[in-house]
Amino acid sequence: MKIWLINATKKRVIKELRKILYDHPRYRSDSENVTNKYSFEERPQRGIIVNSASADRVRLSADNYVGRLSSFCMLADVENAPGTTVEWVRENFNVLEQVSPRRDVFPSPPGVYNIIVKSVPDEARRTPGEFTVEPLLTEINEPLITFTSSGDKEAQISRRNLYPGSVRLWLDGRRGLVQGTDFEVDHGTGEVTFLKETPTGGVIYADYRYVMPTSGPFQYEREQVNLQAIPGAVIAFGDRPQDCDKQCIVITDERTDVAEVYGGKYEVSFELIVFSRDAEDREKLADYTIVKFLEIQNSLGFEGLELLDIAPGGENEEVYNDTTDEYYYETTVSLSLRVDWEVYVPLPITISRAENTSRAAEVEHGYLDGSYPLDLLQGRTPVGAAGVNVSVGRDLSFERVR
C-alpha cells in the first residue's frame, strides 16, 4: 500500500518466491512455506524465510518532483473524520477501455461519492468489513431559464433532493448569483424563486449536487481493492480502517489535475534463508531460486522493481532433534532491488473565476440586477501601479468537499 516501503516490497518478494516454488513440481507443496518469519506450528521439510537486511535513505525534495496527475477520480477527506480507511483511488483502465478505446469516458456519473465505513474486518473470525456509498451527483451548466421580462420570478431545477448549499446559479454563464440576496431555492423540490427584478434576455445556468439512494453494503478486506462499488474506480483499502470513518471519492466528467506527484527510487536488500532437512536439496532449492529470479528480472522491472544483485551466501546446519540426531541445513541468498516510490499531494480546489467584489458587498447587493459595486478595485498607487485584490473559487465548501 502507499504508506509502506519495505513491507510492500517484502510482500512482493514473498509472492514471487511462492510462485517460483509452485511452478516446480517437486516444491509445489512447499510454496506456502515462504514467509517473513519462522511461524510454522511444525517445522516443514523445506522453505524460505525472507528477512530485511538494509535500505538506503528515502528523501522528499524538489529533485523528486515528477509532475501533475490527471484523472477522473480523486480521494478527498471529510471534516472531523479520521480518513484512514481508504488509502488511494485510481481509474480502472480495463473498465474504461470497455466504455471507450481511448479511455476518455468514465462509466460513473460525476459527483461526490461518500464512503461510509459500517464495520472493520475481524481477522480472528474471518469476517470482512462493510461500507456503503452515498452518491451526491453533480450537474454542471444546466440551462434553467431565459428571462423574457423583469417579472420572471420562478424557475424549476430538473432534479429534486438537492444537497443543501450546493446550488450555484450563473447569470449568462459568468456572473454568480448570491443565495439569500438574488434568489432562494427549495432543496426538496428544486424550485427557485428570484428575489430581485430579472434582466430581460438574461440566461440562468445552474450548478448543483443532488442526493441519490445509498448503495451497498459492500464488503472489503485489509490491503485489498474494491472494483464494484463505483464502476470505473479502483478503491484500495489499507491497514488502518476505523469504525464510522468517512471519506469522499470525487468523480469529474473529464480528467482534471488531482495531485502533485513526487517520486524516486530506493535500494533495499533482503536475506533469503533457504532451509531443508536434506543438505543437497537445500543447495538445489537455493540454485533454483537464484536462476528463476534472473529469468523474471525483466518482468519485475516493468513493475518498478529492478534486480540489482542476487548471490548465494554461507551455509550452516542446525540441530533439529537431539534424540534422532536430525538436522536442518540452511543457505543464505542475498537479494538487492532498486524500487520505485511515489507520493501524491492532492489538489482538491478548482478555481472558476476571479471576483473584484467583496463578500460583504455580494451579500448586500447581489448580482442579478447589475447594481453590484467593484469595491475591491484600488486606485493608482504613488508608484503608478494599479492593484486588484481578488477572491477566487466558487465557494471552497462546494469544491473542496470538506
SS elements, strand count: 22
How many DSSP H or I helices?
A: 6
- Which CATH architecture of one domain? 2-Layer Sandwich
- Any idea of the CATH class of one domain? Alpha Beta
Q: Can you tell me about this structure?
A:
- The chain is mainly beta and about 400 residues long.
- Among the domains are: about 5-60 and about 265-345, STM4215-like (2-Layer Sandwich), CATH 3.30.2000; about 355-400, no CATH class.
- The protein is about 15% helix and about 45% strand.
- The two termini are about 25 Å apart.
Keywords:
single chain; 12-stranded mixed sheet; disordered C terminus; STM4215-like; 3-stranded antiparallel sheet; 402 residues; mainly beta
Write the layout of secondary structure elements.
Elements: H1 6-22, E1 34-35, E2 46-55, E3 65-77, E4 86-91, H2 93-99, E5 111-119, E6 129-146, E7 154-156, E8 168-171, E9 175-176, E10 183-185, E11 191-194, E12 203-211, E13 215-220, E14 225-226, E15 233-237, E16 246-276, H3 279-295, H4 297-302, E17 305-321, E18 326-346, E19 354-355, H5 359-365, E20 377-380, E21 386-388, E22 391-392, H6 396-399
Parallel strand pairs: 1-2
Antiparallel strand pairs: 2-16, 3-16, 4-15, 5-6, 5-16, 6-12, 6-13, 7-11, 8-9, 8-12, 10-11, 14-15, 16-18, 17-18, 19-22, 20-21
